[in-house]
Amino acid sequence: LKGIAFMLLATICFTAADSLGKLVAQNYSVTQATLLRCILGMLFIGIYAVGRKQFHHFRTRRPAWHLLRGAVHVSLVLSLFYGLKHIPLAEVISIIFANPFIVAVLSPLLLNEKVSRQSWMAIGIGFLGVLIIARPTPEHFHLAHLACLVSATGMALLIITARRLADTESVITLNFYLYPISILITTLWAIPEWSTPSFTDWL
User: Fold this and answer.
1) Contact, 110 vs 121, CB < 8 A?
2) Is-contact 154 76, C-beta < 8 A?
3) Which of 64, 71, 173, 197 could bridge across to 169 with cysteines, CB 3.0–4.6 Å?
4) Which residues make Cβ contacts (< 8 Å) with residue 58, sequence separation at least 6?
């Protein structure tokens, strides 16, 4: 029950973040929005760990995995902001929430976890809902729909790899090391397109 409650809270937070991201994406480039999201994310997590004097969270025994997760993360967020910039929010959210279906497909292959028949039914019904909202027809299709699917796949891979690394890496470690490679990559693209945010947009 505690795990379910946390997943529901995470879903609400993701939806709220994407709604705010839709506002930001209208006025700034995809790379700048991604860069600032990553810098602030790393800053908040770092302050939390330092404030609690939990410096052990900055140590890791799985640097290669974190490098891989960072590469997945930057493609995820860039794709997400591209989607937020070009198609309605409801369609972005619906496609992103296809990630449970992707997790269910990949977890038996990558984690050797069995997915129950009841779970497949629930996931299948949810996926039908995604198709109804997204309407994947030629006249309705935009490249942003594909970008959101890339983002959903990236999110699924982060969930699966977090599950795989949870035996040695803390929640803070897993989240903190998503950001360094994302910041390095997006800084190169964001600087030429930089537009100083207003006070409201900084908030």
Assistant:
1) no
2) yes
3) 173
4) 49, 173, 176
Q: Which residue has the tokens 């600032």?
A: 36
d(Cα 77, Cα 168) in Å, to the nearest integer? 26
Burial class (CB in 10 A: 0-12, 13-18, 19+), 81: buried
Query: In tens digits, what is the pLDDT along the chain, a chain of 203 residues?
Result: 999 999 899 889 988 998 899 988 889 999 999 999 999 999 999 999 999 899 988 989 899 999 999 999 999 999 999 999 999 888 898 888 888 888 888 888 788 878 788 888 888 887 787 777 777 677 778 899 899 999 999 999 999 999 889 889 999 999 999 999 999 999 989 999 999 999 999 98
The amino acid at 41 = G
For residue 177, give the DSSP letter: T
Nearest one of 96, 78, 70 to 158, comparing CA atoms? 70
β strands within the chain, DSSP E: none
pLDDT of res. 49: 93
Residue 84 three-state SS: helix
| CB burial of residue 77 (10 Å; 0-12, 13-18, 19+) | buried
Rounded CA-CA distance 176/70 in Å is: 10
HSE-CB at 189 with a 13 A cutoff on CA atoms is 16
Residues 6+ apart with CB under 8 A from 161: 65, 68, 69, 72
